Amino acid sequence: MKIQSLRGMPDLFPQDLERWHIFESKLSEVFYSFDTHEIRTPLLEPTELFSRSVGNSSDIINKELYSFLDRNKDSISLRPEGSASIIRAIIQKKQEHEKHKLWYQGPMFRYERPQKGRFRQFHQVGVEYLGFEEGVAEYELISMVLQINKSIGISDYTIKINHLGDAKAKESFCKSLVSFLSPHIEKLHEKDQARLKFNPLRVLDSKEQSTQDLLQSGPKFQDFISNESKNFLQNLVNTYSNHCNILIDQTLVRGLDYYTGVVFEAVSKGLGAQDAFLGGGRYDKLSNQLGGKDMHAIGFAIGIERIVELLNIKNIKSPKKVGFIVTAKQADQKTYKIADDLRSTNKTIILDTFLNDGSLKSQLRRANKNNCTHVIIIGEEELKNNQIIWKDLSEGGKQELLSPKEVIDKYINF
């Protein structure tokens, strides 16, 4: 019997990762321009880290967490998201009093029904700004989102924002919401009934139309937050309305319990029903919840599987690729020295070395299949005369016979 991969945990082959590599390279340029630095945390953490941060009432803790007991009978879990681990690491290093601009990347795990763009092992890139109070960091992170989308050719998207107020505002709103919906409890979907009991705020982002119809005449979160918070949201919209489609969405609450203050997400119609590809917000209380000192915090995470579906490769310049074909039967060390010299002189070009002894015709076919624009050919005669063929593979392209030095000069300026 053949062993199959676990359900919802797909293999990623080179052809699948082409878009990923483009995205990752563009992303690193954006992070560098914002002076944001990488941090790496373990895949496994104590289960308590997520139950305390994400919230016991969330779907992640109740149904989706991959948890098990180790040999010491301690409960450990595969991380379902990245922010809690980052905060844990900062507390462990006793760096809550410092300011941090961090990014991370890696696999996350949730036991949910696999579907398009959503897997049990999925990958996220996240950004966390720590130590920055509400006011400036929100502008910088939205600017970063715009730069990321622009760099990978995404133009058709919407940024939704909302403000969840402080703990008092959330508590007052939730009481009002429960009071309003309780007489209609039988009309709510089973899942929304559970949310109303354990985490009323989550009812706002219900996917059930009957629940949304009820909410139309229910209490509005905006009535419970301060005028200062409302003005802050409007200022964000005014600032970025000329750069992207940005709007205030009073139903936006995000799925994790630790969010307070501004929350936001980016959505695209190109993804279908599950249209969000980026989401985040402020979580100033999380450090304290996890046993650390008070620390302002805001961040966002991008689902890589989703965003690469939107990546517009046509608007992204492909790297130059040159094929290196050797047809000489005795490819001596001189041949490999030429390839090494070429790679050393221009690292922006992919030199695709064909490590086989096929015919010139078959290797030229491979060069075309691999999207090479030019090839370097070294046959018996060229090797003997210390010459190299430089061939343009475009229609009507010319072929030149050059010395090794002339090829290197051409390669440098290619």
Describe this structure in words.
The structure is a single chain. The chain has helices spanning 14-33, 47-53, 59-64, 83-92, 137-151, 167-181, 190-198, 209-215, 227-240, 286-289, 304-310, 333-345, 360-369, 380-385, 404-412, and strands spanning 37-38, 44-46, 67-69, 75-78, 100-109, 121-130, 158-163, 245-248, 262-267, 276-282, 297-303, 320-326, 349-353, 374-378, 388-392, 399-402. The protein has 414 residues and is of the alpha+beta class. It folds into two domains: 14-165 and 225-313, BirA Bifunctional Protein, domain 2 (2-Layer Sandwich); 318-412, Rossmann fold, CATH 3.40.50. It has an eight-stranded mixed beta sheet. It has a five-stranded mixed beta sheet with strand order 13-12-14-15-16, with helices on both faces. α12 links the parallel β12 and β13.
